[in-house]
Amino acid sequence: MKSFILLTVSMLAASIVYAESLEIVTEEFPPFNYTENGKITGCSTEVVEAVLKEAGIKGNPVSYPWARAYKMALNHKNVVIYSMVRNSVRENLFKWVGPISSSRGYTYKLKSSTGIKINKIEDASNYKLGLVREFAITQKLLAKPEFVKWKNVYLVSREEQLIKMLKHGHIELMVMAEPTLVHRLKKIGEDLSLFEKAYLMDETFGYMGINKLTPDETVNRLQSALNKLKENGTYKRIFLKYFPK
Question: I need a labelling partner for 100 at 20 to 30 A (CA). Which of 6, 43, 52, 121 fits?
Fold first, then answer.
């Protein structure tokens, strides 16, 4: 009988498979995830680190250009990418834990460009528009026939490139989250007053996107850990550090 019980317990333990460590990738997207003094920080980073600790899973974030991080999470088991918007294009490509953040993305123009008028998303196709490769808004716009790469849409790897292109007249519009723009401009010494919002493109929620080959048990442990952080107030305390009322 004792041997039978031990065998049953062993079989049950073997059936519960989860990753004890994960490869965590992200990008420079302040104030959600960014590098400061050689360390990756930000409100989403703190949430992800707290989730991993609560779940008992090891993993240290590494920052890459978004397109590279996206491909790593898409193609390799046990890779997690954050903060990633969950949309129809990506829904079946990843497993999901979240949401871990939210943000609003605006179309920005130079304040001096008084002739630019946008009343709906499609109006942005009338101008030279700069976007970051593989961003959710980029995928959303390129799915519309009005937006065509290298005709009216110009793709870059990082937001700083968009700011420089807009300032020097290589593009007429760019899309960026408001807190990200403020952080980027401060970092490169540019004046926020040169830019103004032209249109609210979308409000999105950031998730941890997890490679589909990663065990479901791992995903469930992570989601349960996030839920607990929201219930006990840890999640709220993290965000109040970056977005005080």
Answer: 121
